[in-house]
Amino acid sequence: MANLPGLGKHCDMVALQDIRKAAVIVAGHVARTPLVYSGTLSKMAGCEVYLKLENLQTTGSFKIRGATNKILSELGSMGKAGVVAASAGNHAQGVALAAARAGLPSTIVMPEWASISKQEATRGYGGEVILFGQSLPESLDKAMELRQGGRTFIHPFDDPAIIAGQGTIGLEILEDMPDTDLIVVPVGGGGLVSGIALAAKELKPGIRITGVQAATCPSAKSALESGLPVCIEATRSIADGITVKQIGELTYKIIRDRVDELVLADEDRIAEAVLILLERKKILAEGAGAVAVAALLAGAISPPPGGKAVLVISGGNMDSPLLDRVIRKGLGRNGRIMRFGVLLEDVPGALASLLRVVASTKANVLHIYHDRGRRNLSISQTQVELELETRNTAHVDEIVETLKRAGYAVQLNPDAITRAHS
Predict the structure, then answer these.
(1) Is residue 219 part of a domain?
(2) Is 104 among the domain residues?
(3) H or E stretch at 261
(4) Looking at the structure, do residues 375 and 238 belong to the same domain, yes or no?
(5) What is the CB neighbour count within 10 angstroms for residue 254?
(6) What is the pLDDT along the chain (422 residues), one digit of tens a residue?
(7) Helix residue spans in 53-190 (DSSP H)
(8) What is the C-alpha separation between 26 and 98, in angstroms, rounded?
(9) Which of 280, 299, 334 is the endpoint of a domain?
(10) CA within 13 Å, CB half, 218
(11) What are the φ/ψ torsions at residue 136 (nearest 5 degrees)?
(12) Which residues fall within 8 angstroms of residue 26, CB to CB, at 6 or more apart?
């Protein structure tokens, strides 16, 4: 996302009463999402782990909470021109739906590279989509320009009404499970973790709040280290929904004062988390929505021994092509896919012999690539690459050893498998 300007007139902290008021306003407009116990994650963590499923919201994300509270609480001051926002994804859909339900037009500026599915979803919720710019800052500039026509700008995170709306998640968690010891929250611009931390710390001062950022874009962590919000360089991430280069002025203050720790999740662990949620709990989480699980898997979080932890699954809007790539990356991370190459003599029966060895290991062949034209091969050789479905990294090691004993020089493809000990 972008370096978004803070709203200077809103410098006061959001109070618990604002979040309680938001809960009344959004009731009936947003889903009260469930807390679901995860036996798999509990076993890994050594404590009871529950998932707060914000991916089940109508728009597939928590963003509808803040947008709904902002629009309904300030409806009387909004003109007929409606609202405007800049977003490449979840905020766009949340604003579009909240505005449509309030009877207001919405204009959403999206960068030209925004996925077609997210464009269509935003239109489907009633938003007028304008494609503008090659970056989100350019889209933001356009949205700010459109504000001059009487539209109300809806900030994605650095706004008290937005933060209060997101804070209703914290109320729900502690109403459903008052003895929660730890809440783990994805962090992008900071609106979600700010709202949850404000609510939870007021209701239960001893509770621990941990924020998780993508390692490719640690803007909140950098802000705390620098003593103020700073714009950082960032690279692309599976967790694109929290790739925010600079957190807000208000969210910075709240994170500094109310969040106990910030940890990072790398790309491999995020992919692994998406896969585990999909396979073990039948939960589709986008990369940003799965970072709390990723941090737990990586050991970046110290769970309360014998206590109760809630991981916020903040959204589930992932494009199908990206989902396929993420699943494959997750399978590779777990040793569930193995890809390797061998040189064979180009004679009848050579490939069949190789496959017999593979079959003896009980691996399943997914793909075979046969290349006689590769450079540096002699006229009597062929390069064969196999992609196998495997059980785990121990199974991969077993296959490699079996092939070596059979006389094959195995060349593992590092892009296809990440070894547990690497």
Answers:
(1) yes
(2) yes
(3) strand 261-265
(4) no
(5) 23
(6) 334 443 333 445 799 999 999 999 999 999 999 999 999 999 999 999 999 999 999 999 999 999 999 999 999 999 889 999 998 889 999 999 999 999 999 999 998 888 888 899 999 999 999 999 887 778 888 999 999 889 999 999 999 999 999 999 999 999 999 999 999 999 999 999 999 999 999 999 999 999 999 999 999 999 999 999 999 998 888 888 898 899 999 999 999 999 999 999 999 899 899 989 988 899 999 999 999 999 999 999 999 999 999 999 999 998 777 777 777 777 777 778 888 988 888 888 889 999 999 999 999 998 898 877 676 777 778 888 998 989 888 999 999 999 999 999 888 874 443 333 23
(7) 63-73, 90-101, 116-124, 136-147, 160-176
(8) 10
(9) 334
(10) 12
(11) -65, -35
(12) 65, 68, 69, 72, 165, 168
Give the separation between CA 314 and CA 312, rounded to whole angstroms: 6
- Please name every residue paired with 105 in a beta bridge, in sequence order, or none if there are none: none
Do the beta carbons of residue 280 and residue 36 sit within 8 Å? no
The answer to whether residues 254 and 389 belong to one domain is no
CATH number for the domain including 55? 3.40.50.1100
